[in-house]
């Protein structure tokens, strides 16, 4: 009976990850991000993410993201291993001049796929968490879309954004960083 329960749980976790990726892809492909424009006139788009629990503070933090809970300002990039837009965006992380304010959360169906994604995009040097089933980010923050960026100040979610271009995202976030006085 416990094997049946375990198998059922694995199927449900897989379905959540696939749904997470499908929602992001559908939104991006349906033109949902067109016309939003990028701060500074860039070609990428950044929009507010509906449904995220902005203003909330997670009750529990994964070990890999523990420093986000106390940092002045951190941006957690949420990627899914089943999302083509996430593959592109994750490949842009290495192009950033400064990544010290970023962390990564990988929503995936299993640990091995998440680790492969991290290795393939050389993200292991950043604080990170492989979120099997997308459970933590969905339960704690109400986020089920990728690629997205979660902006935290002292562990409180202050903004949740959908993005198509990491440079446009940085242009949107770093003026916020300067406004809050983070060095």
TrEMBL record:
The keyword Transmembrane helix applies. Keywords: Membrane, Transmembrane, Transmembrane helix. This is Thioredoxin domain-containing protein. The keyword Membrane applies. The chain crosses the membrane at residues 6-28. It comes from the Bacteria.
């Amino acid at each position: 009976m416990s094997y049946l329960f375990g198998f059922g749980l694995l199927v449900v976790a897989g379905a959540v990850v696939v749904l997470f990726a499908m929602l992001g892809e559908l939104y991006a492909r349906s033109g949902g991000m067109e016309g939003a424009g990028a701060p500074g006139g860039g070609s990428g788009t950044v929009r507010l993410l509906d449904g995220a629990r902005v203003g909330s503070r997670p009750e529990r933090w994964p070990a890999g993201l523990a420093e986000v809970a106390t940092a002045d300002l951190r941006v957690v990039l949420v990627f899914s291993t089943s999302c083509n837009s996430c593959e592109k965006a994750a490949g842009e992380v290495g192009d950033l001049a400064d990544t010290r304010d970023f962390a990564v959360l990988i929503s995936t169906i299993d640990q091995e796929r998440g680790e492969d994604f991290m290795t393939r995009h050389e993200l292991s040097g950043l604080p990170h968490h492989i979120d099997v089933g997308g459970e933590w980010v969905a339960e704690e923050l109400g986020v089920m879309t990728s690629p997205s960026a979660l902006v935290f100040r002292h562990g409180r979610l202050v903004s949740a954004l959908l993005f198509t271009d990491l440079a446009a995202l940085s242009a949107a976030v770093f003026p916020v960083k300067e406004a809050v006085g983070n060095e």
